């Protein structure tokens, strides 16, 4: 058998490495570098040390943005980790017409975030479907301010995100459920274990790896929330700007011919470290679970 | 090994940080170049427009360029057009890569950013008849206090727009108002909005937008300090105006959604006949005759409340152009009275930025119809119209203003707090 040359694996990896270097590593390094400068869209700028981070600390909008982003993540992670699993359990059964429901649940995934958010905006409007229904059925007498109240707008964006994400994560769970041993379920049922007991003792441990992966994906996506809040709340981030997210602050800082690229980069770096916290926590959780089992 | 790594890391960091200083380097000397206007023209230039290459305007530009080339044999003009979206970013990249076209269509805010980098030619010292050839309000929009103390002009006014007030006379009559005696000031507007609200049981609206920078300026407040370097519009009159808007909003004289993202804009609400007042260009009634023929006969125009806003598009010349005489001559040619008038005929609602257009009867004499009146009112408004947006005002500042105004109108802050916060945050942005 003839051994390959030492550089053969590197050659094979070269296209991917070049791609990664150009479009991931270099922009990341450049973002960190820019965060220490006062570069604007049209001017070169210069090194200003930690001034952007000092400005970020004193930015009156950053607290709202961090709070909104964390609330968004804290609610989205458990909902989008558990609900798709329940949905996957429902649709994995081979009963007549189930394919229709699988498709229906997956449908929001293929719709663009902007289109979906626009439809939701119309439904949540003062004269939209939800307000009309609630008033017609006599639950409320005044319009519910879904798009103007700070927390209702945030919850509306969360509901939209959960609705849109259910189908995708359901698909991941359906694949994971295939590897959960059926004989364990049968044995537990013979021993008298009920549906709930079998769910927590067999199904959940069986898909734990997928659950951790899904939690990580949701946490990262939630920290980067933009479209849902932007479409529902507008460019100002809701009435008075109280529904801004961290990514919206990046967009606001960098846009326009006077866009502050240095400051926007500092917010991005801050977001990176903030995103790392739940990731480390979830990774640690996964490691501990693996060690225990 | 560890030492080598540390040294390498420092070297890489130093290289990267040194690179940060590299950007668009230019000086005011570039802007101050004197261009020969007597030399024979030759060579070629690039001319950039903003979202104007389409079935409507392409034939005009092709004819225009052909006429220029015929008048100046041996010259060539390469016309490029940029799409509507992302124009500031595109211009920014052209500046930073040194590829700014020789003649470029820029609105005053983008021109200001480019002028600050020294990439635009001062037209004042290179066009002796500039002040008399163009509408003063249009020229003023390209004169920047924070660039050479306002001693330079960076754009030929090309096509201009302003606002005319339009009133739905049927709605007004139904609610006891007379559209032939429309409000002339903001206070009149609020008073009539109350009458309409009370008469219709809160179903009809006269007012339908939140205030902005122009409303603050219309209180007589100077937006900037005397030296033009800082914002100072947190004045008592501005506060009083915002208080009135807040009271009107609370009383239900404005639609409840004017502050949120479901707000459709006052012109859309006017078209739907939910609102009896809107502002628009001089051709609004003509457009309505095609798009909304049932509404069009019910609309009467009147001059804008207080001072009308000015919307300007202009042509600038790159100070880095390798063929400045040709670039300057072409920019003057495109914006001369004959060519501006011909261009504006293709763009209803806009007005020429050339001073000589004042002699054109279509802008000075109405045919007696409401649409004819509107065209004349628009031209009259334009003479005193002001570009309320200071060149140092950015998108980020506008976002802050809208946020703070919303907080004041929803009672989360007082008007004074909202204006103070806006001014403080906007001034802080100027130093970043």
Describe this structure in a few short sentences.
The complex is a heterodimer of chains A (293) and B (432). With 293 residues, chain A is mostly helical.
Characterization of the model:
The complex is a heterodimer of chains A (293) and B (432). Chain A is mainly alpha-helical. Chain A has one domain: MetI-like (MetI-like fold). Chain A is built from 13 helices and no strands. With 432 residues, chain B is α+β, with helices and mostly antiparallel strands. Chain B folds into 2 domains: 200 residues, Periplasmic binding protein-like II (D-Maltodextrin-Binding Protein, domain 2); 189 residues, D-Maltodextrin-Binding Protein, domain 2. In chain B, 44% of the residues lie in helices and 12% in strands. In chain B, the strands form 2 sheets. In chain B, strands 2-1-3-8-4-9 form a 6-stranded mixed β-sheet. Chain B has a 3-stranded antiparallel β-sheet with strand order 6-5-7. In chain B, strand 1, helix 3 and strand 2 form a beta-alpha-beta unit. Chain B starts with a helix and ends with a helix. At the A-B interface, helix 1 and helix 11 of A face helix 1, helix 4, helix 5, helix 18 and helix 19 of B.
Please indicate the percent range of residues of chain B in DSSP E strands (runs of 2 or more). 5-15%
Percentage of residues assigned to helices of chain B: 40-55%
Distance between the termini of chain A: 42 Å
What's the SSE pattern of chain A?
A: HHHHHHHHHHHHH
Proportion of residues in extended strands of chain A: under 5%
**Quick one: biggest sheet of chain B?**
6 strands, mixed
How does the overall form of chain A come out from the CA principal axes?
globular
Average pLDDT figure of chain A: 88
Helix content of chain A: over 70%
Can you tell me the CATH class of chain A? Mainly Alpha
Poorly predicted runs of chain A: none
């Amino acid at each position: 058998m003839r051994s390959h040359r030492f550089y053969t694996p590197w050659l094979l990896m070269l296209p991917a490495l070049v791609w990664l270097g150009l479009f991931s590593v270099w922009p990341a390094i450049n973002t960190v570098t820019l965060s220490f400068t006062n570069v604007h869209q049209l001017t070169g700028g210069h090194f200003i040390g930690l001034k952007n981070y000092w400005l970020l600390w004193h930015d009156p909008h950053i607290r709202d943005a961090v709070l909104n982003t964390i609330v968004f993540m804290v609610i989205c992670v458990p909902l989008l980790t558990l609900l798709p699993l329940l949905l996957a359990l429902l649709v994995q059964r081979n009963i007549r017409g189930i394919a229709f429901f699988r498709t229906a649940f997956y449908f929001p995934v293929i719709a663009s975030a902007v289109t979906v958010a626009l439809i939701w905006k119309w439904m949540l409007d003062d004269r939209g479907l939800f307000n009309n229904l609630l008033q017609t059925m006599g639950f409320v007498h005044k319009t519910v301010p879904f798009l103007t109240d700070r927390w209702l707008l945030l919850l509306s964006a969360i509901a939209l995100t959960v609705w849109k994400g259910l189908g995708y994560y359901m698909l991941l769970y359906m694949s994971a459920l295939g590897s959960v041993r059926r004989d364990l379920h049968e044995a537990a049922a013979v021993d008298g274990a009920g549906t709930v007991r079998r769910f927590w003792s067999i199904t959940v441990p069986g898909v734990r790896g997928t659950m951790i992966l899904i939690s990580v994906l949701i946490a990262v996506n939630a920290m980067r929330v933009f479209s849902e809040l932007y479409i529902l709340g507008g460019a100002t981030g809701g009435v008075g700007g109280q529904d801004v997210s961290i990514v919206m602050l990046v967009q606001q800082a960098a846009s326009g011919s006077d866009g502050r690229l240095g400051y926007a980069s500092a917010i991005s770096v801050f977001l990176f470290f903030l995103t790392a916290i739940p990731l480390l926590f979830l990774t640690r959780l996964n490691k501990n679970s693996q060690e225990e089992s | 090994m560890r030492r080598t790594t540390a040294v390498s890391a420092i070297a890489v960091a130093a290289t990267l940080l040194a690179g940060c200083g590299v950007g668009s380097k230019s000086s005011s000397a570039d802007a101050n170049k004197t261009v020969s206007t007597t030399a024979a023209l030759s060579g070629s230039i690039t001319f950039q427009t903003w979202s104007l290459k389409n079935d409507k305007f392409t034939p005009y530009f092709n004819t225009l360029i052909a006429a220029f080339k015929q008048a100046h044999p041996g010259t060539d003009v390469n016309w490029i057009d940029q799409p509507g979206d992302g124009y500031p970013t595109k211009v920014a990249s052209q500046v930073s890569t040194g590829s700014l076209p020789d003649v470029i269509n820029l609105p005053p805010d983008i021109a200001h950013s480019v002028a600050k980098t020294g990439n635009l030619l001062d037209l004042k010292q290179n066009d002796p008849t500039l002040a008399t050839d163009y509408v003063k309000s249009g020229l003023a929009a390209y004169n920047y206090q924070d660039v050479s103390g306002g001693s330079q002009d960076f754009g030929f006014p090309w096509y201009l727009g302003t606002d005319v007030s339009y009133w739905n006379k049927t709605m007004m009559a139904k609610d006891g108002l007379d559209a032939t005696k429309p409000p002339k000031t903001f206070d009149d507007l609020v008073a009539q909005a109350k009458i309409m609200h009370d008469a219709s049981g809160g179903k009809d609206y006269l007012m339908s937008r939140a205030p902005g920078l122009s409303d603050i300026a219309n209180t007589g407040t100077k937006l900037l300090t005397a030296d033009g370097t800082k914002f100072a519009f947190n004045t008592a009159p501005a506060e009083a105006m915002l208080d009135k808007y807040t009271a009107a909003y609370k009383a239900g004289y404005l639609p409840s959604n004017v502050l949120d993202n479901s707000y459709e804009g006052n012109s859309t609400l006017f078209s739907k006949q939910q609102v009896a007042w809107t502002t628009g260009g001089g051709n609004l009634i003509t457009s309505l005759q095609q798009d909304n023929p049932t509404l069009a006969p019910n609309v009467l125009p009147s001059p804008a409340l207080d001072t009308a806003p000015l919307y300007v598009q202009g042509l600038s010349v790159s100070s880095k152009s390798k063929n400045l005489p040709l670039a300057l001559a072409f920019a003057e040619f495109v914006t001369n009275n004959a060519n501006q008038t011909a261009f504006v005929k293709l763009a209803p609602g806009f007005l020429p930025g050339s001073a000589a257009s004042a002699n054109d009867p279509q802008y000075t004499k109405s045919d007696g119809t409401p649409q004819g009146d509107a065209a004349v009112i628009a031209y009259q408004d334009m003479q005193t119209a002001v570009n309320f947006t200071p060149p140092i005002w950015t998108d980020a500042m506008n976002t802050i203003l809208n946020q703070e105004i919303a907080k004041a109108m929803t009672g989360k802050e007082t008007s004074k707090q909202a204006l103070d916060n806006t001014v403080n945050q906007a001034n802080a942005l100027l130093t970043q």
